[in-house]
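Input (structure):
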């Protein structure tokens, strides 16, 4: 959530930033300033009445002490209207604050100056690419999964529904190997491992920006007021909600494996074949909390970290800097990583690495202490990595005529170097 003081000081710049996003309601910025003016005026009037009430209370007390009870009671009677006005202004102030927050929650983050304008993914900027993407003859991963009996999509459909696959045998072992490998690489890079809850309350979902923006994509448990997490970013970042971090604690670095749950409403066609788009999937996340002056260096470090993992897996990948129209609601700057699918002839997104600046920390009330008081932290997160499409790319890239090779870096985790046909 944006700070209204920042909106007031940078109104024109923020309007230009929202144009990069093609945001259709830039007038909300001016509305926020106007509502804040109303809040300030109400607060001013309330403070004056409270001061007058305190003055009269002291005067009444002195009169009673002096034995002038009649005079004291006369003044006391006159304070009834004053109390009613105070109550009315307190109610008004509460309403002013709620209306201001309601508007602020509808405004997305302002893109960083490095983010280009654009309507959608076609306008994203390719930052780097490891090598030329080429078609490789072979089966798509969903056919390989059936051929080698390692992932059963129909069984998942029977148990739950479409988008809930069942991994089995060496497929399950490979899935577990990827999780362990990602966590080990992350912890070696200084990220502290957490195992958080897989459901969060409304305050946590609101704190990281899932509410009120992504309700349609989240699975809800209404009886208990919980949401199934769409990513480990939500519970992990909320570890520091309502916290003040000491400067000596920086950088705060966390990693976590969790299943993730997303409704993915509106997905269809080739985008949902096999592992391309699931309702439940596994992901390893990295989260960082930084001081303002260090956050963009941290973003570049995270980008390099994710790229190194994909290089170790031997996959062809590219990095895109998302344009304003494709950048997520809460993010100020995002890099997407896409791996090349040999058999599908398409790029598959496997990670987003983002800097949210103070957008989340303002909601979270997450600050750090300085010699001059406290300041809002910058929060960052990235997938390192989301498993389904990484697994899909591995199956397609490493397939041979009668087996699938396992990347060298994973063999110590799987305990085998290839997946063979079932009858072998």
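Output (sequence):
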């Amino acid at each position: 959530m944006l700070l209204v003081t920042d909106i007031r000081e940078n109104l024109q710049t923020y309007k230009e930033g929202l144009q990069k996003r093609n945001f259709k309601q830039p007038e909300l910025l001016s509305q926020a300033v106007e509502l804040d003016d109303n809040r300030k005026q109400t607060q001013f009037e309330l403070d004056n009445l409270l001061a007058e009430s305190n003055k009269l209370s002291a005067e009444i007390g002195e009169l009673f002490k002096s034995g002038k009870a009649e005079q004291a009671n006369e003044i006391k009677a006159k304070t009834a209207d004053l109390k009613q006005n105070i109550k009315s202004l307190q109610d008004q102030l509460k309403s002013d604050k709620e209306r201001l927050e309601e508007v602020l929650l509808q405004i997305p983050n302002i893109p960083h100056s490095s983010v280009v304008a654009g309507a959608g993914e076609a306008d994203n900027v390719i930052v780097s690419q490891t090598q030329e993407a080429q078609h490789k003859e072979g089966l798509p991963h969903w056919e390989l999964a059936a051929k080698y009996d390692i992932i059963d999509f129909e069984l998942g459909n029977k148990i739950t529904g479409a988008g809930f696959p069942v991994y089995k045998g060496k497929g399950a072992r490979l899935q577990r190997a990827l999780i362990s490998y990602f966590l080990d690489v992350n912890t070696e890079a200084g990220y502290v491992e957490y195992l958080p809850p897989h459901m969060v309350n409304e305050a946590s979902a609101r704190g990281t920006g899932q509410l009120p923006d992504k309700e349609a994509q989240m699975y809800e448990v209404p009886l208990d007021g919980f949401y199934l997490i769409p990513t480990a970013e939500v519970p992990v970042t909320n570890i520091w909600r309502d916290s003040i971090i000491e400067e000596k604690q920086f950088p705060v670095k966390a990693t976590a494996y969790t299943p993730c749950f997303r409704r993915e409403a509106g997905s269809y066609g080739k985008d949902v074949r096999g592992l391309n788009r699931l309702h439940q999937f596994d992901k390893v996340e990295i989260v960082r909390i930084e001081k303002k002056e260090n956050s963009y260096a941290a973003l570049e470090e995270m980008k390099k970290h994710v790229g190194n993992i994909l290089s170790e897996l031997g996959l062809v990948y590219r990095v895109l800097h998302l344009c304003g129209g494709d950048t997520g609601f809460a993010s100020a700057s995002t890099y997407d990583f896409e791996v090349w699918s040999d058999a599908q002839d398409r790029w598959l997104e496997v990670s987003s690495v983002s800097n949210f600046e103070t957008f989340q920390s303002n909601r979270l009330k997450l600050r750090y202490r300085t010699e001059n008081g406290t300041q809002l932290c910058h929060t960052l997160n990235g997938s390192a990595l989301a498993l389904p499409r990484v697994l899909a790319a591995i199956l397609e890239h490493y397939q041979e005529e009668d087996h699938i090779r396992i990347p060298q870096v994973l063999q110590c985790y799987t305990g085998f170097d290839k997946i063979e046909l079932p009858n072998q």
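Notes: The chain has 13 helices and 18 strands. The longest helix spans residues 27-65.
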